[in-house]
Amino acid sequence: MDNTFVATYLNWDHRAPRKKHRIGNRILKALGRDAMLVPTSPNMANIETRMNVFHLMRHVAVSKITGDVVELGCAAGESSIVVQKVLNEFAPDKAFHVFDSFEGLPEIKAEDQSDNVFKKGDVSVPENILHKNFAETQVSPPHVHKGWFEDTVPYNLPDKISFAIVDGDLYSSTKHILPHVYERLSPGAICIFIVYYNENIFRRDYTDDCQKCPGARRAIDEFFADKPES
After folding, report:
1. What DSSP character marks residue 41?
2. ∠152-153-157 over CA atoms, to 5°?
3. Which residue from 37, 64, 195, 212 has the highest number of Cβ atoms inside 10 Å of its Cβ?
4. CA-CA distance, 91 to 93, in Å (whole number)?
5. Distance (Å, whole) CA 90 – CA 167
């Protein structure tokens, strides 16, 4: 198993021109145009994100960190497929639980309204898309917990967590998730925050506002203000 699964088989931001692009590029060259067609960049996570998930999940698996695996905010299951692929190969004894409303974001509460970034129903992906993606990649599906985080967390979380992906988008959602995940993390566990953006640490001017998720960052900063982790 190697990075080819992530970069090529799942076709995430693998920017080499494909057949239709090569045909177009030959036409452009014949016309004397200094241009080249390539696949468009993904509008969500890029190849670096998937590679990070791949390597960090593998580290947890081969290090035999105690606990199961969770992803809170799985959407179409692209990261989920990477996680399950690693588990199948290196830690088949670990259970994998994914959480999502599959109805997009909930009603936007006052603490998120001032950001003026999201509205109810944004980033919605139907559950059948997740199952379709798993079927197409021939990877066994995880345990799926459908519903709002307030209704599924902490009730469906495993007692011990070795690896967690948190993608709450909103302040309210992230604030609800964090204490329940944190208290279940085993020594040596890894938790990834998919939507933490701080331009004072690493500025990326091309990042869309909806990917910066200012509410999620506030909730994370507040939670870790009195924690030993930096």
Report:
1. P
2. 100
3. 195
4. 5
5. 24
Here the tokens at position 173 are 């959602």
* Distance in angstroms (rounded) separating the CA atoms of residues 89 and 192: 21
- Are the CB atoms for 5 and 133 separated by under 8 Å? no
* Tokens 């016309």 -> residue: 31
Residue range 55-110, pLDDT digits in tens: 999 999 999 999 999 999 999 998 899 999 999 999 999 999 999 999 999 999 99
Cα(79)–Cα(65) distance, integer angstroms: 20
Vertex 186: Cα angle to 222 and 82 (nearest 5): 90
Question: Which tens digit of pLDDT belongs to each residue from 172-229?
Answer: 999 999 999 999 999 999 999 988 888 888 877 767 766 778 999 999 999 999 999 8
70 phi and psi, to 5 degrees? -135, 150
List of E strands, 160-206: 161-166, 185-193
Backbone conformation region of residue 79, classed left if phi is above 0, alpha if psi is from -120 to 50, else beta? alpha
Q: Tokens 């599906």: give the residue.
A: 141
Who wins on pLDDT, 216 or 137?
Answer: 216
**Count of CB atoms situated within 10 Å of the CB of 216:** 29
